[in-house]
Amino acid sequence: MSAPIEQARRWIHESERVLIGAGAGMSAAAGIDYGDTATFARLFPAFVRRGFRAQYQLIGHTGLTPAQHWGYWSTHVKHVAFSEDERVAYQALQGLVQDRDTFVLTSNVDRLFPRNGFDEARLFTPQGDYALLQCRKPCTRETWPTRPVIERCLTALDPVTQEVSDPEAIPRCPRCGGAVFMNVRIDAGFVEEPYVEQAQRFRQWLREAATARLLVIEIGAGFNTPSVVRWRMEQLVHQHPGARLVRINLSDPELPDALGKRAVALAMGAEQAIGLLRNGAKAA
Binding residues for Zn(2+), per the UniProt record (predicted)? Predict the structure, then answer.
């Protein structure tokens, strides 16, 4: 077994509190990969016929009609946020840290942490949540549950064109009648209010962790939005002299020199790393 794996195992065993910082690589390990062409072709055959090959091409795309737009997003959000599929990578991670006082900060909006055993009261999702809708303007700071809207769109979905066939099913803001979208951070109109309490709980947990043996496990956080997870995890470890960082990242495993021996990198995918760490934890 490699020295970094053994080091990370020891740090998990010695920790009292664990902060998990997760980026897109964590969800990719669970099969939610926005560059996955095979899954896209299975879920969106009508969009393949329109020239699309992967889900990342639809992020921010403005060339769809409202019927096409909600045909795509209702199918996508149902698959990502509300399916009953078990995500083994998340469950394995939960098993790895289940005996520790754990908090999760993630840039992912797919709800895979609470759906796979993690305490929603110990979760901070500053980039938003697919479970909520907001006005695109926004005309109000309110948000609404996404699931009923998604289900209504799917009921009206044409199976061939994958368009919402009933105009009445296309969601509108209940206040102004304008366009709505999931409550995710895509521009300055993002409604922050649902995450204020999350942020307060996170700050309180960190204050209490200042006197504990804190381990930060950062998973799959690259440079698309490094300030959300990657740089924040580095800064937290730097500010807590007794804290340690385990960085799990296949493509960007580099560590800041300033953390010295308080940081270790596992240059592999999340599923492999969690499997190796958990097997060692079971054997310990």
Answer: 135, 139, 173, 176
Residue 157: pLDDT over 70: yes
Please report, for the chain, the start and end positions of each structural domain, with discontinuous segments joined by +.
Answer: 1-31+88-117+192-284, 34-86+135-180
> Which of 109, 93, 128, 111 has its CA nearest to residue 199?
128
The pLDDT score that the predictor gives to residue 282 is 42
Residue whose entry in the numeric block shows the structure tokens 């366009």: 179
User: Residue ranges of the alpha helices (H) in the chain?
Assistant: 3-14, 24-29, 37-43, 45-49, 66-81, 88-97, 112-115, 147-155, 196-209, 230-239, 270-283
Of the candidate CATH numbers 3.40.190.10, 3.40.1010.10, 3.40.50.1220, 3.40.50.300, the domain formed by 1-31+88-117+192-284 belongs to 3.40.50.1220
Residue 192 has pLDDT above 60, yes or no: yes
- ∠ CA 163-81-266, nearest 5°, is 125
In the numeric block, the tokens 């300033």 are attached to 258
Q: Taking CA 174 as the corner, what is the angle to CA 138 and CA 111, rounded to the nearest 5 degrees? A: 70
CB-based contact 8:264 (threshold 8 Å) = yes
Count Cα atoms within 13 angstroms, Cβ side, for 140: 15
**Rounded distance, CA 39 to CA 27, Å?**
14
pLDDT at 278: 87
Q: What is the dihedral of CA 124, 125, 130, 133, to 10 degrees?
A: 90
Can you tell me the distance from the alpha carbon of 59 to that of 64, in angstroms, rounded to the nearest whole number? 12
153 is in an annotated binding site: no
284 pLDDT exceeds 80?
Answer: no
User: How far is C-alpha 242 from the geometric centre of its chain's CA atoms?
Assistant: 27
Range in 31-35, 183-187, 255-259 the model is least confident about? 31-35
Distance separating alpha carbons of residues 182 and 150, to the nearest angstrom: 10
What pLDDT was estimated at residue 280?
A: 60
202 vs 123: CA distance, rounded Å: 8
